[in-house]
Amino acid sequence: MLEKTGIATEEMIMNAFPSIDRINKGPVAVIECYQNIPCNPCQTACRFNAINIGDDINNLPKLEPDNCTGCSICLSKCPGLSIMIVDGSKSQDTVLVKLPYEFLPLPGKGDTVAGLNRAGEYIADVEVLSVLNPESFDKTPIVTIEVDRKYLYDIRNIQISEQSQNNKEVL
Ligand code: SF4
Ligand code: SF4
């Protein structure tokens, strides 16, 4: 399926997500790395031993959710943009999601942007809570959005909407 469509199956996605109990405790990584490729910067970047690839660099990375602090460092180091951070500890109705976002222009804090699924289809408007782009992230900015909980397993990207751009021009 992944080879044919480029989109992970529901089973693959659910296996990549930590349990909802862990997500509700605080920020935690979701690693959607589904192909055995020689790559390991995520493991090298994690100071908390939360990512394990093992001796064979072609292995898929495994997350130890209880070791993960949600620090986001691995997210900015992954060349495949395969990692996001989810946090269900702030609200019963919404989750916070940190996504790598390498397009320009970047959105701004407070913007409303279009939330997209893995197929690039529109799901819902979402609010941008912050945009981090320090030099240490090496040109992989991290955008934090707040999303209705029902989209937790669907949201995977954002797109700046025309309305958002209009607001920027007014500002
Ligand atoms: S978010 Fe931080 S603690 Fe969690 S896996 Fe990534 S680098 Fe490790
Ligand atoms: S850095 Fe990204 S692409 Fe490379 S193994 Fe880790 S999750 Fe997969």
Written description of the protein model:
This protein has 171 residues and is α+β, with helices and mostly antiparallel strands. The protein has 6 helices and 9 strands; from the N terminus they run H-H-H-E-H-E-E-H-E-E-E-E-E-E-H. The chain has helices spanning 2-5, 10-16, 20-25, 41-45, 73-77, 162-170, and strands at residues 28-31, 51-52, 62-63, 83-87, 94-100, 112-116, 122-132, 142-148, 157-159. The protein has a 7-stranded antiparallel sheet with strand order 1-4-5-8-7-6-9. The chain has a two-stranded antiparallel ribbon with strand order 2-3. Residues 167-171 have low confidence and may be disordered. Bound molecules: iron/sulfur cluster (2 copies). One iron/sulfur cluster (SF4) binds at residues 29, 45-46, 48, 50-51, 68-74, 85. One iron/sulfur cluster is lined by residues 31, 33, 39-42, 61, 78-80, 82-83.
Write the topology of this structure.
Elements: H1 2-5, H2 10-16, H3 20-25, E1 28-31, H4 41-45, E2 51-52, E3 62-63, H5 73-77, E4 83-87, E5 94-100, E6 112-116, E7 122-132, E8 142-148, E9 157-159, H6 162-170
Antiparallel strand pairs: 1-4, 2-3, 4-5, 5-8, 6-7, 6-9, 7-8
Bound molecules: iron/sulfur cluster (SF4) (2 copies).
Sequence of strands across the biggest β-sheet: 1-4-5-8-7-6-9
> Total number of helical segments?
6
Number of E-type strands? 9
Structural class per helix/strand content?
alpha+beta
Mean pLDDT across the residues is 92
Q: Percentage of helical residues?
A: 10-25%
Low-pLDDT parts are 167-171
Number of domains: 1
Q: Outline, from the CA principal axes?
A: globular
User: In whole angstroms, how far apart are the ends?
Assistant: 45 Å
Give the biggest beta sheet: 7 strands, antiparallel
